[in-house]
Amino acid sequence: MNITLAQAENAIKAAKQKATAIDTKMNIAIVDAGANLVAFVRMDGAWLGSLDIAIKKAKTARYFDMNTGIIGELSQPGGSLYNIEHSNGGLITFPGGVPIKNDNDEIIGAIGVSGSSVENDHAVAEAGATSL
Amino acid sequence: MNITLAQAENAIKAAKQKATAIDTKMNIAIVDAGANLVAFVRMDGAWLGSLDIAIKKAKTARYFDMNTGIIGELSQPGGSLYNIEHSNGGLITFPGGVPIKNDNDEIIGAIGVSGSSVENDHAVAEAGATSL
Amino acid sequence: MNITLAQAENAIKAAKQKATAIDTKMNIAIVDAGANLVAFVRMDGAWLGSLDIAIKKAKTARYFDMNTGIIGELSQPGGSLYNIEHSNGGLITFPGGVPIKNDNDEIIGAIGVSGSSVENDHAVAEAGATSL
Amino acid sequence: MNITLAQAENAIKAAKQKATAIDTKMNIAIVDAGANLVAFVRMDGAWLGSLDIAIKKAKTARYFDMNTGIIGELSQPGGSLYNIEHSNGGLITFPGGVPIKNDNDEIIGAIGVSGSSVENDHAVAEAGATSL
């Protein structure tokens, strides 16, 4: 099972609405089950450096089928996954990446959001992921 | 002057309509005046390898403010720009990348399209670029 | 639809048998529908530099859903896809990469083989791809 | 002395059996004495992001001829090898990489495993490394 472009565009639409509702400007990326980019938008005025971060968050969430922030808790100094960020051409392991599931609870892709605090990034990603 | 997300989304919409009209499945990327990605879509069933090519075509068109195919004519063996593709993390210099201008004829971004023959790629990119 | 590890291992077994039958030593890689590595073997004494080439051939075949040699015919100087090899972190466009299909003729992955002449590489890849 | 493909395949078989026995889905990589990939498998449903990690663990174990977890103890903030992960195109220094020795106690390669907790990753790598 793989996310369709129509589903990805719906997720981006929902994420943009949430971003606007909380007065933020976001980069929003959607990857498919193979961790390859399906859709992306950068809202006007959003941080330029967040472009790559949004894409890496989406990939990281699909690479390990979990929210990116969970990995970040384990990759701290002394943690069991310390410096895992050096793999896969660079991971981003703070919040803002969330897997996307279909009605059968199968992971079909992931969303990554970057442009504000990690709390806001996660809230916008969650809004996108749950819009399906 | 810089392309807005709304303009980029309109260009993608026009490009998708053209792609569907000529029965192709395309990857479509829009970059801004700084050659940074603004929006991207991969149509269902489009070649996976065209993801990177569409983005590189858009960047190449903005890097040099001309259609990508023009650069490709100069980058042939013996040509004045032989193997320019080695620069900028990899250029794509065959047709499918087109600058996007505003009403004052200023370049505000570029579109890159990949997924079919280079003639089709260029036609879809042109449809997107002229939609503004 | 995605290739399973059992299918990938069968394809590698068939490819190894063909490689031995024609007295060659090969690197053999299988990627899934998302172009991510599923299985790989390097036969004893096979060229070390063919390791990366076999993986790139498999990816290239899945990226564009065709035999790699077809792309190489179009990427020559003056060809419509000249220097496409600069995309996707490096393509290999000479023969030896072949898509793998299931019984419904859907592409579920690809095989890449490197270690001898391109004719031999292709013959071994074909043996693997058709073993399913 | 260098690991043979037959030995690598035996190590992978033993590692897969252990992975199944403890109900995990693993990426398993074997490198030779030159730290170059010999064999790899990704079990169905294993994390996609663990593909690169398994290979990097195997390389790291052979690069320094020790279990990866030992290096990770020294690469912490303030440690003598702080951020050694930046070398060699990216190291992975948490458990799951183990050198492979022959009967004369000579190192002939290494195994890297990723897909579960680091304790499980190490247990599966150990099962593969000691199977020879």
The number of helical segments of chain A is: 4
Topology, number of strands of chain A: 4
Number of domains of chain A: 1
Largest chain-chain contact? A-D, 20 and 21 residues
Q: C-alpha Rg of chain A, in Å?
A: 13 Å
In the CATH hierarchy, the third-tier topology of chain A is known as: Beta-Lactamase
| SSE class of chain A | alpha+beta
What is the H/E order of chain A?
Answer: HEEHHEEH
Low-confidence stretches of chain A: none
The biggest beta sheet of chain A is recorded as:
4 strands, antiparallel
CATH class identity of chain A: Alpha Beta
Portion of residues in beta strands of chain A equals 15-25%
CATH superfamily of chain A: Haem-degrading domain
Cα distance spanning the termini of chain A: 14 Å
Task: Give me the oligomer status.
Answer: homotetramer
**Overall pLDDT of chain A, averaged?**
97
**CATH hierarchy: architecture of chain A:** 2-Layer Sandwich
- Percent of residues in helices of chain A: 25-40%
Task: List strands and helices in order, with pairings.
The structure is a homotetramer of 132-residue chains.
Chain A: H1 5-21, E1 27-32, E2 37-42, H2 50-64, H3 68-74, E3 97-101, E4 107-114, H4 118-129
Description:
The structure is a homotetramer of 132-residue chains. The longest helix of chain A is centred in the N-terminal third of the chain and has 17 residues, at 5-21. In chain A, strands 2-1-4-3 form a four-stranded antiparallel sheet. Chain A is globular and about 40 Å long. Chain A has 132 residues and is of the alpha+beta class. Chain A has helices spanning 5-21, 50-64, 68-74, 118-129; strands spanning 27-32, 37-42, 97-101, 107-114. Chain A is built from four helices and four strands, in the order H-E-E-H-H-E-E-H. Chain A starts with a helix and ends with a helix. The model of chain A has no long low-confidence stretch (mean pLDDT 97). The first copy, chain A, has one domain: 2-Layer Sandwich (Beta-Lactamase), CATH 3.30.450. Chain A is 39% helix and 19% strand. Chain A binds chain D through residues 34-35, 59-60, 62-65, 77-78, 80-84, 86-89, 91, and chain D through 47-50, 52-53, 56, 72, 75-77, 83, 85-86, 90-94, 117-118. Chains A, B, C, D: Pfam families: HbpS-like.
